[in-house]
Design goal:
Blueprint (H helix, E strand, L loop, with lengths): L6 E5 L3 H12 L3 E5 L27 H10 L4 E4 L2 E11 L2 E10 L2 E7 L1 E4 L3 E3 L15 E3 H11 L13 E8 L15 H15 L4 E5 L10 H6 L5 E3 L5 E4 L5 E7 L4 E7 L1 E6 L1 E3 L1 H9 L7 H4 L10 E3 L9 H21 L1
Helix pairs in contact: 1-2, 1-8
Bound molecules: flavin-adenine dinucleotide and iron/sulfur cluster (2 copies).
The site of one iron/sulfur cluster (SF4) has 13 residues, from strand 10 and helix 4.
């Protein structure tokens, strides 16, 4: 890094932060990339390739490419296991500077930068309080956990007895579109992600049947038609189950109102997968407070977009639920905005 270069701190080493860092570095801006966990990639690094007999454009492989680019760029300095604990901004010769205190393990260091990019992402909804047995029944998992299992072992087995499941139920909208939680937003990615995952598992484990319990299928983006055409492989029931109970033979019983028969029904599955939504993270809110932003996070962005202070930018799923492809685009826009801000400030 050259000491006369303009400097930006990118907070968050997920696909948005990595992407923005790479774009900024290419524009000749020095980047301090701060990640509070021990590795780069964020949530996208837990996702598996969902290719069936063809690539289904799930985006999971993008993050590896971004990690390779960011770690190989001399203009990017990566700080792992690090968090921002304080920020003082001041104007030096009419130029705004941020004096950021970083904590890595027990060590503190001060880094001065010209701008800060919030790329601290989202928190997956934690379904412990929903009536679906999560945390009580081993064979109830979230989509994120199922994805990680597929990524690590290439197959899906029941955690309770390592048997291959013969049928699985996906419950959509867990933690999204839920007025009892005050979560009125659609998380946007979970219908497509769950459908791709079910088709991928069916390809690898023939005979496995997936049933989707859903409100409606939101499958945004350019692959809508392809994913939609694949839906005939699965059973679709437009109803959200009331609860999940364990049977005496270690299976899972779902009760729901069936719109076709207009009656309550029960069905039994080997596994139940909860399509958890994206929620604003506490970390993003804390970071926002340190940067003197009153309220931040997509729960509020819906009502009034809050103007960011000069020199502060945001990208990716810290702003609102978005896919990997959209996060890359959002990071590109933020990098371009920062570049123009640097030229004019
Ligand atoms: C179940 C599930 C399945 C999905 N499947 C798909 C899919 O198939 N295709 C798709 O395109 N998208 C999918 N997504 C969405 C995808 O995960 C997001 O688009 C992507 O992760 C957004 O990247 P991000 O960098 O904005 O946020 P994140 O991935 O959340 O990354 C944020 C990073 O910032 C770090 N961080 C947070 N706070 C701080 C802080 N204060 N200081 C330093 N670091 C911090 C975190 O540790 C993390 O590394 C899925 C999401 C879920 C939940
Ligand atoms: S986009 Fe998804 S399906 Fe296609 S190769 Fe990459 S990880 Fe696999
Ligand atoms: S994308 Fe689908 S599962 Fe996710 S919140 Fe929207 S409708 Fe529900």
């Amino acid at each position: 890094m050259n000491s006369s270069m303009k400097q930006v701190m990118v907070v968050g080493g997920g696909v948005s932060g990595l992407s923005a860092a790479v774009d900024l570095a290419r524009l000749g801006i020095a980047v301090e990339l701060v990640e509070n966990s021990g590795s780069l990639g964020g949530h996208a690094a837990q996702l598996s390739c969902k290719a069936t007999d063809h690539c289904v454009s799930c985006g999971a492989c993008v993050v590896e490419e971004k990690i390779r680019q960011a770690t190989g760029d001399a203009n990017i300095r990566v700080h792992l296991n690090s968090s921002v604990v304080n920020n003082n901004s001041n104007d030096v010769n009419r130029r705004k500077r941020f004096d950021v205190t970083l904590k890595q393990d027990q060590e503190m260091q001060h880094i001065e930068v010209d701008a800060v990019l919030i790329a601290s992402g989202f928190a997956p909804f934690h379904p412990a309080n929903k009536p679906y047995g999560y945390g009580r029944f081993e064979n109830v998992m979230t989509t994120l956990e199922l994805d990680l299992m597929l990524r690590k072992s290439g197959a899906v087995k029941r955690p309770s007895d390592a048997a291959f499941p013969r049928n699985m139920a996906f419950i959509q909208c867990v933690g999204s579109r839920d007025s009892s939680l005050g979560h009125l937003w659609c998380s946007k990615i979970c219908c497509g992600a769950a459908l791709r995952m079910a088709s991928c598992i069916q390809n690898r484990q023939p005979g496995m049947k997936s049933t989707f319990f859903y409100i409606d299928i939101q499958n945004f983006g350019k692959n809508f038609q392809t994913d939609y055409a694949d839906m005939h492989r699965h059973i679709l029931i437009r109803s959200i189950p009331a609860d999940v109970l364990k049977t005496a033979d270690d299976r899972l019983k779902l009760s729901y109102f069936d719109p076709d028969t207009q009656a309550y029904q029960e069905s039994i599955f080997d596994m139940v997968i909860l399509s958890v939504g994206l929620t604003p993270s506490v970390s993003t809110r804390n970071l926002a407070a340190m940067l003197n932003i009153d309220m931040y996070g997509f729960a509020y962005a819906r009502k009034t977009p809050i103007p960011l202070p000069a020199g502060v930018f945001a990208a990716g799923a810290a702003l609102e639920p978005m896919s990997i492809a959209e996060s890359v685009l959002s990071a590109g826009k933020a990098a371009s905005d920062i570049f123009h801000y640097m030229k004019t400030s």
